[in-house]
Specification:
Order of helices and strands: HEHEHEHHEHEHEHEHHHHHHH
CATH superfamily of the largest domain: Aldolase class I
Shape: globular
Helix content: 40-55%
Structural class: alpha/beta
Mean pLDDT: 95
EC number: 1.3.1.91
InterPro entries: Aldolase_TIM, DUS-like_FMN-bd, DUS_fam, DusA, tRNA_hU_synthase_CS
CATH class of the largest domain: Alpha Beta
Number of strands: 7
Cofactor: FMN
Strand content: 5-15%
Bound molecules: flavin mononucleotide
Enzyme class: oxidoreductase
Low-confidence stretches: 316-322
Family: Belongs to the dus family.
CATH topology of the largest domain: TIM Barrel
Length: 322
């Protein structure tokens, strides 16, 4: 998620869940290919499995960017066909591409030719006055013919005029049923749903209804313990739920190394603010981290002092024999 997530966030999220697939924020192909912004590809090997999301609409340039991503070791290259911002539209990429399935197919075909890892697409159900019922299956069909087998569908339209990107994540109504119908129509495709999902129960409901995956954005960022820490046992059927306090301890060496390399404490801790959402002491944790991390010399000790403000997690309920 642009401006929110980065490699530090993904490192934290990977500690919370071994199996959730993590995505980079959108990196534009022009920035990589023409701008030489290879630093945008940097990540920690522990983040695997991790997908690189690209923005662009020039098949040759996207192929080159995909090659760079695969060369850097990303497990999947994802094309963004969902971002509605003006900046993105003027470069003709993101959601506006829902209007040009032929061009998206060319992009996907070029990217697939360039790399061995999966090339996937994240899209909306449609844009503006498109009849999504008709245009979405046509879009999926066209892009599938170009070799894309996995799609993540944000279950609302993007309205390209008059809404800010933020409004475009909330105001156009969600149509989960349409996404479910797409799975019935295209059983051979791997379809994940995205948009407005705020709990693992809700996610499990979509899997039970036949979808292949669920992508969670804002809720996972704001309350990573609720979404990611229990994802391995509840969704992937393996491991145990992680305790956020243990995760903080596991972050300490990472933070120390980041500081040693000249990084700033808040660059890492800003992603940790929501770790204790809903737990006693969460407010003190947030406050200490928000206020203290910019002070000269602030480091792991501050993080541990903030952690001391948080109550230990309650013990698991005893089994009842009666
Ligand atoms: C700050 C912010 C930045 C985002 N950046 C991206 C992005 O780079 N690429 C992308 O595919 N979606 C991006 N999104 C959209 C989310 O991936 C997701 O589709 C949307 O928030 C709906 O899902 P949610 O309700 O689970 O958050 C962004 C969302 C937010 C809030």
């Amino acid at each position: 998620m642009m401006d929110w997530t980065d490699r530090h966030c993904r490192y934290l999220h990977r500690l919370l869940s071994r199996h959730a697939l993590l995505y980079t924020e959108m990196v534009t192909a022009p920035a990589l290919v023409r701008g030489g912004a290879v630093h945008l590809l940097a990540y920690n090997p522990q983040e695997h499995p991790v997908a690189l999301q690209l923005g662009g609409s020039d098949p040759t340039e996207l192929a080159q960017a995909a090659r760079m991503g695969a060369g850097a070791g990303y497990d999947e290259i994802n094309l963004n066909v969902g971002c509605p911002s003006d900046r993105v539209q003027s470069g003709t990429f993101g959601a506006v591409l829902m209007l040009q399935p032929g061009l998206v197919a060319d992009c996907v075909a070029a990217m697939r030719d360039a790399v061995d890892v999966d090339v996937t697409v994240k899209c909306r159900i449609g844009v503006d006055d498109q009849q999504a019922e008709d245009t979405l299956p046509a879009f999926l069909d066209r892009i599938a013919q170009a070799g894309c087998r996995r799609f993540t569908i944000h279950a609302r339209k993007a309205w390209l005029q008059g809404l800010s990107p933020k409004e475009n994540r909330d105001i156009p109504p969600l149509d989960y049923d349409l996404v479910l119908r797409m799975k019935q129509q295209f059983p051979e495709l791997h379809l994940s749903v995205n948009g407005g999902i705020t709990s693992l129960d809700q996610a499990q409901g979509f899997l039970d209804a036949g979808l292949d995956g669920v992508m969670i954005g804002r809720a996972a960022y704001h309350d990573p313990a609720a979404i990611l820490a229990a994802a391995d046992p509840l969704i992937f059927g393996t491991g145990t739920a992680r305790d956020a306090a243990d995760i903080v301890h596991e972050m300490i060496p990472y933070i120390a190394a980041h500081l040693q390399n000249g990084g700033k404490l808040h660059q890492v801790t800003r992603h940790m603010l929501g770790l204790f959402s809903g737990r006693p002491g969460a407010r003190a944790w947030r406050r200490m981290l928000s206020e203290g991390t910019h002070r000269p010399g602030a480091g792991p000790d501050l993080v541990l002092a903030a952690l001391a403000q948080v109550s230990p997690s309650p013990p698991a309920p005893a089994a009842c024999a009666g």
